[in-house]
Structure formats: structure tokens, C-alpha cells
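Entry for NAI complex. Fields follow.
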Amino acid sequence: MAEIGIGILGGGYMGKAHAVAMSAVGAVFNTKLRPRLEMICASTPQNAERYRAAFGFARATDDWRILVDDPAVEAIVIATPQNMHRDIAEAAFARGKAVFCEKPLGASLADSRAMVAAAEQSKQPNMVGFNYIRTPASQYARQLIADGEIGDVTWFRGEHTEDFYADPKTPASWRTAGEANGTMGDLAPHMINGAMALLGPIDRLIAEVETVHDARPGGAVTNDDHGQMMCRFAGGAMGQMYFSRIATGRKMGYAYEISGTRGSIRFDQEDQNALWLYRMDGPEASRGFTKILTGPSHPDYEPFCQGPGHGTGYQDQIIIEARDFLRAIETGQDVWPTFHDGMEVNRVIAAAMASSRDKSWKHVSEF
Amino acid sequence: MAEIGIGILGGGYMGKAHAVAMSAVGAVFNTKLRPRLEMICASTPQNAERYRAAFGFARATDDWRILVDDPAVEAIVIATPQNMHRDIAEAAFARGKAVFCEKPLGASLADSRAMVAAAEQSKQPNMVGFNYIRTPASQYARQLIADGEIGDVTWFRGEHTEDFYADPKTPASWRTAGEANGTMGDLAPHMINGAMALLGPIDRLIAEVETVHDARPGGAVTNDDHGQMMCRFAGGAMGQMYFSRIATGRKMGYAYEISGTRGSIRFDQEDQNALWLYRMDGPEASRGFTKILTGPSHPDYEPFCQGPGHGTGYQDQIIIEARDFLRAIETGQDVWPTFHDGMEVNRVIAAAMASSRDKSWKHVSEF
Amino acid sequence: MAEIGIGILGGGYMGKAHAVAMSAVGAVFNTKLRPRLEMICASTPQNAERYRAAFGFARATDDWRILVDDPAVEAIVIATPQNMHRDIAEAAFARGKAVFCEKPLGASLADSRAMVAAAEQSKQPNMVGFNYIRTPASQYARQLIADGEIGDVTWFRGEHTEDFYADPKTPASWRTAGEANGTMGDLAPHMINGAMALLGPIDRLIAEVETVHDARPGGAVTNDDHGQMMCRFAGGAMGQMYFSRIATGRKMGYAYEISGTRGSIRFDQEDQNALWLYRMDGPEASRGFTKILTGPSHPDYEPFCQGPGHGTGYQDQIIIEARDFLRAIETGQDVWPTFHDGMEVNRVIAAAMASSRDKSWKHVSEF
Amino acid sequence: MAEIGIGILGGGYMGKAHAVAMSAVGAVFNTKLRPRLEMICASTPQNAERYRAAFGFARATDDWRILVDDPAVEAIVIATPQNMHRDIAEAAFARGKAVFCEKPLGASLADSRAMVAAAEQSKQPNMVGFNYIRTPASQYARQLIADGEIGDVTWFRGEHTEDFYADPKTPASWRTAGEANGTMGDLAPHMINGAMALLGPIDRLIAEVETVHDARPGGAVTNDDHGQMMCRFAGGAMGQMYFSRIATGRKMGYAYEISGTRGSIRFDQEDQNALWLYRMDGPEASRGFTKILTGPSHPDYEPFCQGPGHGTGYQDQIIIEARDFLRAIETGQDVWPTFHDGMEVNRVIAAAMASSRDKSWKHVSEF
Ligand SMILES: NC(=O)C1=CN([C@@H]2O[C@H](COP(=O)(O)OP(=O)(O)OC[C@H]3O[C@@H](n4cnc5c(N)ncnc54)[C@H](O)[C@@H]3O)[C@@H](O)[C@H]2O)C=CC1
Ligand SMILES: NC(=O)C1=CN([C@@H]2O[C@H](COP(=O)(O)OP(=O)(O)OC[C@H]3O[C@@H](n4cnc5c(N)ncnc54)[C@H](O)[C@@H]3O)[C@@H](O)[C@H]2O)C=CC1
Ligand SMILES: NC(=O)C1=CN([C@@H]2O[C@H](COP(=O)(O)OP(=O)(O)OC[C@H]3O[C@@H](n4cnc5c(N)ncnc54)[C@H](O)[C@@H]3O)[C@@H](O)[C@H]2O)C=CC1
Ligand SMILES: NC(=O)C1=CN([C@@H]2O[C@H](COP(=O)(O)OP(=O)(O)OC[C@H]3O[C@@H](n4cnc5c(N)ncnc54)[C@H](O)[C@@H]3O)[C@@H](O)[C@H]2O)C=CC1
């Protein structure tokens, strides 16, 4: 068993989640590589020190370059806002370090392309933080489709809906300015990535985005509150997606429905331990959607619990990501989703934003 | 209490439903006008006689003109395939009779326009059979929105999905040929009408329709299996709709989700006695979607049962329609939805078909 | 096709439901015998006349003996409070008339025994109004168990819970006095009958009943608000039941769960068109409870609607009962559940009340 | 921040869960005391070494006395089968060490009593592993009841049902022999503890236990497969419970329903992030059960995720237990549930087993 020095950039929502994941992943997955929490970086020395102490890192800094440069830091996790992703990643690759970057990959398609180039040039392990598709249920959904269990897919509906900005009195923040931080930049990537993981590439689309509440305490809102999209997958299926941070009542509405010629699948992250599967077989009278509770017979469940139906949660998704990142480092093999996969998501979003501007269908290949 | 002579055209799926409804409506709603089952018409004398005996009509015919001409028939219900709706309705109005017509109103927008003109000229009661929006739950949803209980609506998602043609081995029938009989002609009208009942008119849309299984035992399929649509309501909300007869696993997927600035509503006809309501009030910790079971405190429930949660079913919707039709006749006042409302649905569908053809946004006002 | 003259006693909650059912049953089920609404009886001449006009009866009376004696009344439906069931039934049988009696059969076990004796002596058709077990879903559940689809049943849990007396400010009525009108007398019969229909006879039990709110506006409450029971079926399964009229939030909580050695079934009347079935077969990863929506492939569904998932409701159960009653009259064959079945339910309740009094297990055979 | 040396006994299902929890708890909850994984014990040297390496302990042993005696081990977690709990706990208390013991506390009531005595004499922190009641949802349920939000509780129904022994071909193991390892010994403690946490002490009960499959590959089954219970709480509520390891289809059926005079609560661990709450207030038309998704406004949720509805899982419950255990050590204050609480559960089970034997009601106070 070998150790690897980890540096995390950001100690907020996701920085903490990754710190916990790095603490737990070894015991959960019996990984060959074991993380050593080397350094954490935040925007002020005080915050950095607070996070260090809380999460159990050896050292802290408020300068991301110090972290990236530190020789004891062998692999980094980027959990700062999107506009910093590119610079950090490029610097880390330049120093030959493995990089795990939170979604969205770059703050723009151009940033993402540059990041992919940097990753490829460095030949270092690189991954993007699409955690929702890592649940045992969604991994199982991918398997079912890949195995042809629902036949040819004819229809897809996906959404990523939350309501943290539903109330117009919720103050402005970094999330309410900058295209990369709006709903299309911040939430849509999860479901677009999920859609492509489940069905394959998107060929063309038409989209519409909108800012519903354009002023909030603390400032104007300059990015989108919600966006809708209609698309055609390269594999032939039609589909619709919806993304919103103002979907009143929805807390974790990462949800999809997939119809195929021989079956269908339904999933809602708000009940993340259940996958609904319909098969067009057996006597008509006993057909229906089966509510499958995840358990040891599903991907990446057993390490968390030997009992089926006992359930995994949000934090466990991040632990699964950590296992994948360590595996990529250990084996030197790419583990999905790489920066390239993250960039493909940005292409779809770029196409959607262009479509919303000029109100016409767009081929993703043009972006 | 007065009687009124009823003639029904068609004795199939819907002909029977209306015959039962006319038998039961008086006792259920204590209507002033009481239906007398005067004559039924089907495509052959044998079928017509069989339906007569089964449903309890006085007389039968295989010639719709005989029924329409008969002086004892004072009001008619059209439950024949869509391509016959116009001729029958025009003849009936010309004879000064009240007409209830199954959805879709006409087989085309032109037919529907002609039917509205005939209805207006005759000044006779006229209604269209959009039954799903008549459930106590959906009527209550309309009330909630109209009363501002969920604030300004920002988003609508609707679907009408079934799977009776999901299996490519299901034979061709009158439903698999003719634009009016495809999914857009046959199923979409219910949800488009529902969407407009809940949110008001649709301003513009973009749509895409498709035939997935183009050959079936018994013939080629010449109309659409499913269709998707993205739209903007005149009131400002964005929305998406989906219509399918090949939605594997969906049996009665008339379903909608509506987000507003102060609350949200969710409904699925497969559990037609429940409406889900979220309100952005009270302490955060106790917020969530409330599953409201319909009961005597909701519209048109109590006549069916004094106990809440005891539930109404499909046939009860048709009884509610019958009550409305009798009321329109008795009072001489229009009862929603009239032929005009049915025609408005056809306009939206015409816009959608045009949009699908030339792949661009369409304003409904242009149709 | 022949007619039969129907007399209904009571025009309240259930009197109306039966009147509507008798109006609709012919058209729904294409019955050979067709009901003619001959006479209705209520407690005052005014009410009787009001019901007559509303429901479409030929004549009205406030004296049940007049109805029972009337030669044009060939079959009667008893929908008056329980304490009148016995006298009316005995008089009707004495005059050679078929009798459908609302649940519970008699106001006491002694009454029920006398009613069974009268029925047998008269050789007239006799049925009891256990409507909930008539839904397509519960009929299908019975089939599944009878066919061994879930193996040997090891466990049963049933409840009949409502909350119409949950609020202590709800006034007293005929339901709050008299043992036959309490929860054990009024609600428990439905589920006890259901349990026996699904699993067979109950061998022994222990029960406890209680009055929670002993005073209400308008009077003291002298019967039970809720009751719980633990039992052993003759077939070997263990089980628990619960009955309540104060189960806050429950509107139509006729619900059961049945575990067998090869599968399980779950049902809740609040979603009466769904039956949940688990089978211990196929790969572990795809097992789960299947939510089966009722449709034409299930018992007694198709006459109400050709489309699966479109749903039946409370009133439809009463129409199914009417069909059964007409069939019993027409064929001269007993149709389940007869008075004898109703009496068996009263035996279980008598055992439960005795058990509650002396706090010990009781064999039903002793009652 | 101080460290504390942890020793875990057992490296199976629960041993691993506690090892992971001890790795993660510091970062999740920012605890003052930080666990140092000092030693792990299993039944063979090979297993012990395997667990050591996998979970990241410093040392391993196959002799629990070595672990308990080790001076660097300051607090221990007992995750071995029930029959070892007492000896280990007594030895640890004798050496002045804090003890966390998996449920059930002792293998018998006598064992549990001895363990409580040892704990009290030692004045060391002592806790029992009732993890299910630690979910944010169930903690919130406890708060709601304690705050009177559902009024006076009138009725409780609880179950702990799984199906890991539903198939008679599943081989015998340590769980199929010995009263402490049957369903009443192994599963019932969770729900009995939960019931008492939610409603307070149980006054009297009547129960029945049964072995359904008395032979399995590998040996006879000498303990119970399922058990049912009817009870009365000291606070006045009636209730029923059911426990089963053969409840076909149930994977994690820790579920309860609680009716009160002003509201009701429903919960099912298979959807552990949702609590259903009904309140008897507001207009009748908008009442219903609200599905509350847990989030930062509920107990012990936010440390796992800032987003509501994102969900916690099984492993997170064990992390919450670890936090509580560390807090008890750090503060020297008892944290619920202590050994005394665990012993109270054993009393109820002892009463239930006695009741099953002589088939009569038992007062828990007699045990
Ligand atoms: N996968 C998922 O489920 C989620 C992903 N994210 C992504 O994670 C990233 C971080 O988002 P959150 O954790 O929500 O943000 P946050 O606002 O909670 O935390 C941001 C962190 O970045 C640090 N930071 C900001 N500027 C810095 C600078 N110049 N130098 C050093 N540190 C700096 C802050 O100190 C803070 O610790 C974003 O890219 C976001 O899109 C966010 C939430 C959920
Ligand atoms: N509101 C709803 O839920 C539904 C509405 N519909 C609508 O109801 C109408 C009828 O559809 P279904 O009942 O499903 O069709 P169906 O095929 O079951 O019955 C059609 C009936 O029309 C009669 N008919 C056909 N050609 C005729 C002719 N030339 N002369 C006299 N009678 C003729 C047939 O004998 C048959 O009785 C359609 O407009 C359809 O769109 C259909 C199903 C559900
Ligand atoms: N199967 C089911 O789902 C239900 C069955 N029931 C049963 O139906 C029966 C009637 O109950 P509800 O309809 O709820 O009662 P209700 O109070 O609504 O109606 C009772 C009817 O009996 C009539 N009546 C009372 N005393 C009379 C007398 N001396 N002479 C003539 N008529 C008299 C009243 O005028 C009234 O029309 C009861 O046995 C009850 O247990 C009641 C509700 C539901
Ligand atoms: N709270 C919960 O959700 C659960 C609690 N439990 C409880 O946890 C305890 C352990 O159960 P599991 O982990 O399921 O058992 P297991 O069979 O998976 O593991 C038992 C462990 O004890 C060790 N062991 C057995 N005999 C030993 C000996 N003489 N000396 C040293 N080590 C020995 C074994 O090596 C093994 O590592 C039991 O008390 C059980 O009731 C079990 C499962 C779930």
C-alpha cells in the first residue's frame, strides 16, 4: 500500500466533500493508494487554516500556486468556483500532477478545450466531478441500457432542478453572475453528462434560457435561472431536458425517464436508492414498473453496506469519485469521465446558449 | 324534471362510455334534464343493434344521417373516428341540435374552424370531450393556479403518454393512418387543452414529430408515434410537452408539473385521485410536496362519494362531461370547453406540425 | 333481456351509491337482467320523495314494510343503519325476495345468524356489501394468492383506517353509539372480510378496542374509536390488523401487505388502481416490487374502460356488486359474499370484542 | 484537537462500518477528539491482518483481550456477534475504557443488566449502536412528537423487516442459532428502541414468535424467523410491531406510522431521506401528507451536505454514532442511547419472548 499526497483547492461545499472522501475512501474501497491530506487552500489565510484543522490537513495556504507547487502534493482536487478551474489545472499539469476538477470543467468551452490540451500534453490522470451519475442506481441504469435490456431507446427526458434561488429574496452570490455560474453553467452539466453517459452523444438541439428574477438583495442577476432544451441523440432518440435553480419544491431534481422499444427506466435523485424498470415481457397482467432498491448486486454498493436497501447518500458519491481518481493514478489508465468528457459537456452547453440566442436548431458538431 | 332524447354516434370505446354516462348522470348529479337513450349508430346494422341492446337505447341505425334527422333525438354525442366529426356536427347544427363531440374537434384545423362556424350560426350548445381535465384533482389544480396559490407560473411540463403501440407487432388500425389519428392528432389534444386550461394560451412553440415503427402487421404506419414540443405561454411561462403512444410502460401518462414563484403542482393521471402541492411557506424544515387526496372538498367529487380518498375513475369523468352538456342545454349558456376551445387546440397542433416540418419556432397566432 | 324491480332502503351515502349503480350496471356489464328503479324508502316522506326524484325511482315511501311488501319490488338493497338490517331482511326473505344487504350483515352476531337462517330458509339470493375487495386490483390479488404466485403466505397485515372522527369537535351521530356502529362494527368488517377472502379463515385472535374521544358535541361516545388485533389464520399465517376512524390523515386506508415464501403483495385503497407485487425470481439485481396498474387484463376492469391505467373509482365497485347481485338472481346460484360470509365476519368481530374484554386469545370457532 | 486511540472488535459488516466512520467523523463533524485507528481484532490472525490493512489500523490481533488490554487503545467498539458483547464490555470497563457496543446490548437480559452495572461502576462512556434512529428524518420525527406537533399520540405501528432469510435455501449461520441471534434478538431491538425513542416506554405487550423454515443447508434453525407484538405505551398509545427476516421483498423495512390527535407521521427506511407529515390544520382541501425531504434544516444533515434532498445513507448513520461516542468521551456526559437504554430494549424483548411462550399479556415492569 502506498501513500499519495493530496491537495484540495477550496474548502466550501465541495472542498469539504472531497476532504471527507479522501479520509474515508481507503477504508471503504481498500484502495492500493492511500491519500495523505497534505495541503488545503482557501481564499483567506483564516479560512484555509480553519479548513485545515477541521478536515485534518497537514498544511494550509491562501495561495493556490503554493499548493500546486508543493512537492508533497502529488494530486490535486479543484473545488473552487469555475472561473479558477483552468489556471489551476494548467499549472498542475505543467508540474506533472494528477488533477480532479469539479464540474463544470472550464468556465467556457474555450477554457475546457485548453484544459483538455493541457491534460493530454501532460499525460497526467484527469477527471471531472460528475458525481450524480456515480450512484449505484444510475450506474446500473447505464448497464441495463448498454446491455440492451430496454431495447432501442426512443425517448429521453432529463432534468436537473433545484430551488435554492426560487425565492427572489435569496441574496446574490458568485452564482448569480457570469455565464459559467448560471443554471446552464452550474447545474446543466450534471444532466447533460448523465444523458450522454446513458444514451451517447447529442447530435443537435434547440434551447432557451431565461433569467426570471433579475435583481436580488446584493446585486443584479446576470445569468440564467432556468433553461429548456429539446434534442436528438446521435443514436436516434429524441429528448427533452430542463434545468432550473428556481424549480420551487425541487431539492435534488436530477431525474430522468428513458423509453425503449422493450422497456423503460425512471429515476429521481430525490430517492437515489431506487431505480424503476419496466420490461415489455411476461403476461400483461403482471407488468409494471419495478422499484428496484439498490444493494450489493449493483455497482459500487457493497463497499458501503452489505445489506440491500440500506442506502447510500450524497457523500458516498464523492467517495466513489475518489476511488476512481486514485485508480486512474495507480493504473495510469483513464477513468471516465475525463477532461475530454467534461469538454464534450461544455460543447453541448455552448450549442444551447447559441441556440437560445438565435432561436434555431444547432448541431453540436459545430461547436 | 324534463327528459331529453339523446343520440350517440359510435358504440366503441367512447360510445359506450357516453352511453353509461347518460344512464348514470341523472342519479349522480340530480340533473334537471334527464337523458332518454333514443338512438345509437354504428358502422353496421349488426353492431348498432348489439350496442342498442347492451346500452339500453330505444333504437339503432347504421346511418348517421338517420340518427341526426330523427326528431326524438334532441342532442347528439359524436364518438366516431375523427374524420367523421365535421359532417355529423354540421348536419346536427343545421337541424338545431346540441352537439357534444369527442376530441379532437375536427380532423384538421380547417374542419374545426368550419365546425365552430356551424356551431355559432346554429347557436346550439356545443362541447368537446376533454375528459382528463375534469377530474376533481385537475379541476382543483386549475383553481389553485387561478387563485394565485403558486404565484406566477414560470415553468410547465406536460405529457400524454401511453404505450398501446409500443410493441411493433401490434397491428395497424384506423389510428395508424391519417394525420388526425396519429399521436399529435389523437393524444396531444388532451394535454394541449389541459395546458391551456391551467396556464392560458400558448404564444409560440417548436416541435418535432416522428414515426418510430413505420410498418405493422396489416399495413404501413403513416402518422406519428410520438412528438415533442417546447413552448412559451402568453402569460410568460416556458414549457415542454411530450406525446407518445409508444412510451413503454406508460398506461395513462397524462401528467404535468407546474412551477410558480410561490409553489408548485404535480399530477399524474395514473394516480388520478392525488394532487401534489408544494408551498413556499412555513418553516423550511416542514416544507415538501403535500399529497392531497381528492374528496368532497374538491370540485365534482362529492356526487360520486361522501368519503374523501375513496376515489373516482375514468368513467366518472365522462359522467361529469354529461352533466356539463346537460347544463349547457338546460341553461342555454356555454359550458367550457366549447367547440371554440377545441379549435384553439387544433391551432396549436397545426403550428406544431408546421414547426416539425420546417424546424423552426412558430407563433400560434399565425395558424 | 328481462327487467327486475328494485327497491332500495335508505337514500344516504350508500343508498345513493346503489341507486346510481342500478342505473348504470346494465350498460356497463350488458347484464341479462335490467334493473327497474321501483321504490325508495327513507326515514321521512320528504327525504324519500327527494331521493326518488333525484335518483329516478318510480315511487317513494317512509315505511320500509311498504317497500318490502310491494309486488313490483322483486329485489331489495338494504342501505339503512345496521340496527335495521335484520328486520328488513327477514321480512323480504319471508316474501321471497332477493336481498342485498350493506355491511355489516347484522348489528350483532345473533342478528347475523338469524339473517343467514332466514336467507337459507327462503332460498333467495343474498349478498353482503363488501365493496373494497371488488376492485380489479384486489380481485387480482386474490387470484395471485390462489394460484400460488407468492408461495405459502407467512404474514398478513391489514388495516381499515379513516379519520372522519379524528377531530374531537366532529359531532356525535348514529355512528358514535351502539357497538355495531363503532369502528369494529362499521369499518373492521371490510378488512376482516378482505383478509378472509385473501387468506382464508382466521383460527384465533387477540384484540383490544378503545374509545379515545368519549364526548363529542351532541353527546357521549359509547362505542370504539379504534381497535387492534393479532391473529393466526387457519392456513398458518400470522397477522395483524388495525381499524380506526381517528387515524389522522388516512382517508381510505383499506390497505394490506402479504408476505409469502415466494413473493409478496402490497395494496392501499388510497391508490386503488395499483397493486404491488414482488416475486422472488430472476436475477437479484432486477428484483423489486412491481407497481401494476389495473387494466383490461385484470378482473372486472374492461367493462369500465378499454385503456389500462385509466382507472376505476369507488362508484365502480358498487356497480360490480350490482352485477353480482343481478347474476345471483338470474342464475339462482350463490355469488360471493353471501350472508353466510357476512356472518363469518361477525363471528370474528364477536371474538375480537370478547378478547378485548377479557384480554386473552380467542378461537373464532367458539363464537 | 486531541487524539484518541480506537480499538474495534470485529471487522465484518459492522466492524468495517465503524472503521470507516472513525476515519471520516473528524472531517465531517469537526470533532474536538480525533480517532486514531490503533488496533483491530478478528477471529483469526489472517482476517485481523486483512482488516488492519484494508481499514488502516496500526495493529491487529485475534485475541480480544490483547486489544482491550492495550494501553494505546483508549476507547473500543464492539462489533462481534452478540454472545461476546458482555465479556468484552466488562473487561474494557474494568480497564477504564469507553465502550460503544453494537446492538443488541447483551445476548440476554441478564447479560445486559450485568453490562449496565459494569458501565455504571466504571463511570466510563457507554453507548449502544441503534443507528437507524439517527437518520436526520427520524431525529426530526422525534422532535416533532416531543414538540407536540401531532398532538397526543394514539397509535403506533412499527416494523423491522428484511428478507435475507426468506429463501429457505439460504444456508444456516451464526444468525440461525441462539435466541439472541434470531429476529427478536437481532432485528427487533432497532425498532423497539425506535418506538421508545419516539413514544416513550412500553407498559405491556403480547407477542408471538415463530420459526418458519426450521432447516437450512448447513443446519437446523433454532431461533425465530419472525415475530409479532401488540402493545400499550405508558403514555397511553396502542401499538403493533412486526419483525421479520423472511419478509419477502423487504430489504430495509425499518418503518413506522404514528397517529396523533392533531397529525400523523409516516416513515420507511427504504426511502430514508423522506419523512411524511400530516397536520390537521389549514383548509380541508389542501390537507394531505407532506413528503419532507431532509436537508440542512434537519438534525445532523448539514455536515454531510449543504444541499437539501441530496441525501444521506447507511454509512452516514454510523458516522453520526461515532460523533456521539466521541462527544460522550470528550464531555464525560452520557449521550443517548446508553447501555441503560440498550438494557431497556432487552427487557421488552424478554417480555415478548415470555408472552409468546405462555400466550398472555405481559407488563414490561415484571422483567
Ligand atoms: N458536484 C457537485 O455536486 C457540486 C459541484 N460544485 C462545484 O464545485 C466548485 C466549488 O463550488 P462550491 O464548493 O459550491 O463553492 P463554495 O463557495 O462553497 O466554496 C468555494 C471555495 O473556493 C475557495 N476560493 C474561492 N476563491 C479562491 C481563491 N482565489 N483562492 C483560493 N481559494 C478560493 C473559497 O475559499 C471556498 O473555500 C464549483 O466549480 C462548483 O461548480 C458545487 C456544488 C456541488
Ligand atoms: N376522450 C377520450 O378519452 C377518448 C376519445 N376518443 C375519441 O373518440 C372517438 C371514437 O374513438 P373510439 O371510441 O376509440 O373508436 P372505436 O373504434 O372504439 O369506435 C368507433 C365507433 O364508430 C363507429 N363508426 C365508425 N365508422 C362509422 C360510420 N361510418 N358510421 C357510423 N358509425 C361508425 C364504429 O361502429 C364504432 O362503434 C374518436 O374521435 C377518438 O379520438 C377515443 C378514445 C378515448
Ligand atoms: N360499503 C360501504 O362502503 C359503506 C357502507 N355503509 C353501510 O351502509 C349502511 C347505511 O349507511 P349510510 O348510507 O352511511 O347512512 P346514512 O346515514 O347516510 O343513510 C341512512 C339512510 O337510511 C335511512 N333510514 C334511517 N332510518 C330509517 C327508517 N327507520 N326507515 C327508513 N329509512 C331509514 C335514512 O333516511 C338514510 O337515507 C350502513 O349499514 C353502513 O354500515 C356506509 C358507508 C359506506
Ligand atoms: N447496527 C446495525 O445495523 C447492525 C448491527 N449488527 C451487529 O453487529 C455485530 C456484528 O455483526 P456483523 O458485523 O453482522 O457480523 P459479521 O459476522 O459480519 O462479523 C463478525 C466479526 O466478529 C469477528 N469475531 C467473531 N468471533 C470472534 C472472536 N472470538 N474473537 C474476535 N473476533 C471475532 C469476526 O472475525 C468478524 O470480523 C452483532 O452484534 C450484530 O448484531 C450487525 C449488522 C447490522
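NOTE: Chain B has two domains: 2-131, 133-310+345-358.
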